[in-house]
Amino acid sequence: MEKYIIRGGHPLEGEVTISGAKNAAVAIVPAALMVDGPCIIENVPNIVDVMLQFEILEKMGVKIKQLNTTTFCTENNGINFDSEETFEHMTKLRASYYFIGAELGRYGRARVAMPGGCNFGGIRPVDQHVKGFEKLNSFVRVESEGFISAIAPEGLIGNHIYFDVVTVGATMNVMLAAVFAKGQTVMENVAKEPHIVDLANFLNQMGADIKGAGTDKIVVNGVERLHGGTYSIIPDQIEAGTYMAAVAACGGDVLIRNVIPKHLECISSKLEDMGVKIDMYDDSVRVRRTGPLRHTNLKTQPYPGFPTDMQPQMAAVMCLADGSSHITEGVWPNRFRYTEEMGKMGAHINVFKETAVIDGVPDLHGADVLAHDLRAGAAMVIAGLAAHGTTTVSQIGYIERGYEDLIGKLRGIGGDIERVDA
Ligand code: EPZ
Q1: pLDDT tens for residues 139-154?
Q2: Ligand 1 atom nearest to CA at 131
Q3: What is the pLDDT of residues 40-56, one digit of tens each?
């Protein structure tokens, strides 16, 4: 079992470059099977989840060619819907469900293994995905052996869909299914995250007709086909935020390159409240922290609110702030399992239902801790870099699903971290 060994307690200095956005890539790669002709995708993050999806496409029969470290070309000349190997791969990641929207959209039928992915102490529902697919005139079945299948015998027909909750996954999935649906689909109460806009921009680049992504209402006019083309994925908002939080926790001065400042506003403003100095440039952000950290409070919400995927990382920063900080988790029912691990490092955190109360301490000390999920794991790495002494983080598979070259990038800004086989 691999783990990280981190020797913490010193500031981070230097420059780091952000990769393509994981949560955009995991929707854009499945969407490539909807394209009729060569589809070139640039700025692809080299992370496990995305590489798994290219393997799934390949097992389905889609031709994949890697043009360079971050650019892939796909060509779909016909797929096999029932490859057992494909299903085995799909169970390893949450975002496998985007293959339903893509297959249903293009072929009027889909069969996908139930998604896996991070577990925040409960099931991760798909009822809004099912609602959207059924509204588009398809029949959806959750099969006993852990598969979801969908079929539209009379073809998909555009409709008006009002989501009961703001959900990134269902917004993306139903958008995919609506691309070729006859007539117009109006989706309301949709998610507005940067990766939603990125998926819509990708599809439009290939000939789709999608308007309103990034607002509460998305309108999709069905088209006949998607032609080939080239698209570059946006930089990862959460990866950038994670490095910003690392500098805030450890202290130092780091220039973070390849970012979209607009996407980082909610994170920057919180860190500035805590006394971190943030300078925004066209496509980079400089983060400095030399003085004490001030406490603050935050509530996670759908974009443009504070992102839930930055919640654990911010907790690591708050552990070292003067005074008491509160985090209220407004998206997932239970995303605080990591607080027990931070307690092993000397953090004082009490959780009451959806709120964590973090009483700052002067220092954290090294300990042996676990990564319970992707972002919790990133938070433990941040805590380890800030702590005095040596920290080991186990279950790092979660972390490597979503962060490209974490070791190399952290070492590049002075982080003392190595990956070892336990
Ligand atoms: C995406 O998950 C992200 N994953 C998550 O990031 C992120 O935390 C989440 O969006 C919220 O931003 C990917 O994009 C691969 P949701 P998703 O559907 O789509 C409820 C990471 O760290 N809901 O927006 O699964 C759900 O229970 C990962 O990169 C329903 O009730 O999240 C939750 O409370 C972790 N019914 C809320 O909506 C549904 O059908 C938001 O879920 C779907 C969701």
Answers
A1: 999 877 678 899 999 9
A2: 40
A3: 999 999 999 999 999 99
Distances (CA, A) of 225 to 133, 176, 201: 19, 13, 16
Q: Are residues 216 and 301 in the same domain?
A: no
Do residues 39 and 15 both lie within one domain?
no
* Cβ 241 vs Cβ 310: under 8 Å: yes
Determine the distance separating the centroid of ligand 1 and the alpha carbon of 167, expressed in angstroms: 6
CATH number of the domain where residue 343 is located: 3.65.10.10
Q: Provide the percentage of residues in the chain whose pLDDT is more than 90.
A: 88
Q: Are residues 174 and 219 in the same domain?
A: yes
Ligand 1 centroid to 160 CA: how many Å? Answer: 22
Cα–Cα distance between 105 and 165 in angstroms, integer?
Answer: 22
Q: Are residues 221 and 329 in the same domain?
A: no
* CA 27–ligand 1 middle distance (angstroms): 13
Q: Where are the beta strands (DSSP E) in 262-311?
A: 277-280, 284-289, 297-299
User: Probe ligand 1: pick from 167, 263, 309, 374, max atoms within 8 Å of CB?
Assistant: 167
What is the C-alpha separation between 23 and 173, in angstroms, rounded? Answer: 13
Name the residue range of residue 74's domain: 22-232
Active site residue 73: no
Task: Say yes or no: 339 and 326 in one domain.
Answer: yes
Same domain, 279 and 226: no
Q: Same domain, yes or no, for 244 and 104?
A: no
